[in-house]
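Predict structure. Chain length: 124.
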Amino acid sequence: MAKILLIDDEPDIVYLVKKVLEKGGHQVEEAYTGTEGLLKAESENPALIVLDILMPDISGWDVAKTLKSQDKTKNTPIVMLSVKNSHHSIQKSFKAGAGAHLGKPAKSAEILSTVEKVLNEDQS
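Prediction complete.
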């Protein structure tokens, strides 16, 4: 079981992804803006962050870059979860520091397997 921070501005997505992750045995913290996500990443010390790209205040890419530039969060793995799924967007996610990029809508099994894979990569 891992503590996962889910940052997404869409309450329905947060609800659904949280349920998937909890069924997978994970504890989930929620944030609904990039700013709130940055603060919770600092205070909650999650094992992994699931991050949307399109948010009203700060893009997920900028949130990821900020997280990767801070000592406390630079080693926290990130999974991007977004409707932005072009080759360019996926490349931008990896350049920002993400370990994986999932397209919305993603199947429950795909979310769980990607989260597990990134968590396992981080521990090796």
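Summary: The first strand starts at residue 3 and ends at 7.
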